[in-house]
Each structure stands twice: as C-alpha cells, then as structure tokens.
Amino acid sequence: MRDSGVVTSKTGFPGGREFCYTLESNPASVNPAAFYLDNEIRLRLPEAVILAWTTTEQVSIKGDHILDDGETLSILIEKDFACLAPRSGEDEADMYPHPNVE
C-alpha cells in the first residue's frame, strides 16, 4: 500500500464469481469516498491520511461519504493484525504485526 498507493483483494464465490475490494490513496482527495462498480468496492482516501495510517500505530480510518440522495455512507477501514496464536493454514504474510506481541 505504501509503495503503490493501491491495494486490492478479492473473495471467490461459487461459479467462478469474485467480489473485489480496493483501497486507493489519492493525492487529490480531500475526504474518504466509496464507489461500487462491477462487483468491486473502491475506497479512495486522501494520500496524507493513508500515509499516516500505514506509518504509525493508528488502527483505523473513519469517514463519511454523502450519497447523491443525501444519505450518508459511513466508512471504516482497519488494519488486519496477525493473530496472537498461530493458526494452521492461515497466511499472515501481509498483515500488520499484532500490537500486543512482546
């Protein structure tokens, strides 16, 4: 995330269908924004917000996106921490170190 400004992941479903989610750092963004298109949720956040989140102990990013109809979409993004106890079959290579590990 820190290097490219974009991180994407996906969840597979039966029939070969996929649901994708992308977190994107954008220097032109002022507020968090969310977009949904073609089975993908894309969250666009200000570059400074992402930089602070990835380089500090800050755990979450919160924001609101006002929709076209005036409703508010609440956005919450949190770091994925490695487990305190190892679990077989779980790949934790791209997770943040757990803050309670000594």
Question: How would you characterize the overall build of this protein?
Answer:
With 102 residues, the protein is mainly β. The protein has one domain (6-78). Helices cover 9% and strands 43% of the residues. It is built from 1 helix and 6 strands, in the order E-E-E-E-H-E-E. It has one helix at residues 47-55, and strands spanning 6-13, 17-26, 33-37, 40-46, 60-66, 72-78. The strands form 2 sheets. The chain has a 4-stranded mixed β-sheet. A two-stranded antiparallel sheet has the order 5-6. Strand 5 and strand 6 (72-78) form a beta hairpin. The model has no long low-confidence stretch (mean pLDDT 85).
| Total number of helices | 1
**SSE string, helices as H and strands as E:** EEEEHEE
Question: What proportion of the residues is helical, as a percent range?
Answer: under 10%
List the uncertain runs.
none
Summarize the biggest pleated sheet: 4 strands, mixed
Break the fold down into its secondary structure elements and pairings.
Blueprint: E1 6-13, E2 17-26, E3 33-37, E4 40-46, H1 47-55, E5 60-66, E6 72-78
Give the gist of this structure.
9% of the residues lie in helices and 43% in strands. With 102 residues, it is mainly beta.
Which terms summarize this structure?
6 strands; two-stranded antiparallel sheet; four-stranded mixed β-sheet; single chain; mainly beta; 102 residues
